[in-house]
Amino acid sequence: SAELCLLPALAALLPPLPGPGGPGPAEVGLGALPGEVRAAVRALVGDLDSLFTALGLREETFAVGALSRVIAAELANYVPARNRRRIATNKASVIFVDRTLDLAGAVGHHGDNLAEKILSVLPKLPGHKTDVMVNMVELTALQTTDETCSIIAPGCLAQPNDPAAKALWESFMNLKQKEAVMEARRHLVEAASRENLPIKMSMGRVTPEQLSSYIQLFRNNLKALENHCGLLQLVLATVQTLKHPQTSKWDNFLAFERLLLQTIGESEMPSVLNQLLPMIKSYNERTKDDYACEDFFVLLIYIYSVVGEIKCGKELDIAEEKVKKALIKAICDEPEPSPLLQKIT
């Protein structure tokens, strides 16, 4: 979007977590980092310099976190960057922030944002870090219940050649979910009216079923499909996200996170973990509303990120051990572990 540029090639660049006997934050220089991290830092510095050259920028750099300080220092000492700063006409402030300093933000569910939900619940487009697969079967005469139907190429979110779709995507990123869904309906109605499709405008709450019924109007009209293909992909992404089981879980996550914040304020970490324990269920005991193993990793990262200083002691050791045992049992009982669980184990 106009305000956000992602660098997916560097998606794997994460600050090394301080382990036992590892370098402390103060000691980390580029030389102390593992080889692949050093290479990624140099690649990032080169990419940023190219970007700043294209924009004619002379930057003033700030850093928050150990790895960010390394990157800022590398950029400051990078010879091509020094030459660029001498002749650049535009000024900019650049702030680097370590991603691990805001893990609570990355795993929390506080955002009422449709773009975030679409990117979280729909499957990733193969080979992409920042785009998703949108199932396009609904726009065809081929009606199949097979979700992995690969005869029809998936749609995606990037629609650079469709002004209406670009405007709608901005709404998904910048508006609250309810307003964004209403924008999706408005764009659909306008597109259908332009194509003289028999659309009945309805007021009130927008439902995924209503959006689906509007999409169906385009199905047998090839010209209309071609003219509004980008817009239809974004609205289909909305429908599939709103109907996705993970979206209903989103509210459960939010409620549990709020409860945790209250509990953490009133009691110690062991009692928080003991609250979590009965919710960890094996595959055979789970219903569709229960949390899966990955969900517990997300919740645990959230808990340990927001709690601050943790008082060590026997009570905490016992509580942590129980949670570990329950998680290990749940992971071992998974009939088909997800790619993430396979990676972790």
Shape descriptor reads globular
Secondary structure: helix percent: 40-55%
Topology as H/E string? HEHHEHHHHHHHHHHHH
How many strand segments? 2
* Biggest sheet descriptor: 2 strands, parallel
- Measured by DSSP, the beta-strand proportion falls in under 5%
Count of helical stretches: 15
Domain count, please report it: 3
Give average pLDDT, whole number. 87
Q: Structural class of the helix and strand makeup?
A: mainly alpha
Radius of gyration: 24 Å
Q: Kindly report how far apart the N and C termini lie.
A: 37 Å
InterPro entries: Sec1-like
Keywords: Signal
Organism: Anthoscopus minutus
Protein name: SCFD2 protein
Write the layout of secondary structure elements.
Elements: H1 35-55, E1 57-64, H2 66-77, H3 79-87, E2 90-97, H4 103-107, H5 114-121, H6 163-174, H7 177-194, H8 208-218, H9 222-227, H10 229-243, H11 245-266, H12 269-276, H13 293-306, H14 314-332, H15 339-344
Parallel strand pairs: 1-2
Helix pairs in contact: 1-2, 5-10, 6-7, 6-10, 7-8, 7-10, 8-10, 11-13, 12-14
Folded structure, characterized:
InterPro entries: Sec1-like. It is a single chain. This protein has helices spanning 35-55, 66-77, 79-87, 103-107, 114-121, 163-174, 177-194, 208-218, 222-227, 229-243, 245-266, 269-276, 293-306, 314-332, 339-344, and strands at 57-64, 90-97. It has 345 residues and is mainly α. It folds into 3 domains: 25-101, no CATH class; 114-243, no CATH class; 248-344, no CATH class. It is built from 15 helices and 2 strands. The protein has a two-stranded parallel sheet. Helix 1 packs across helix 2 (66-77) and helix 6 (163-174) runs parallel beside helix 10.
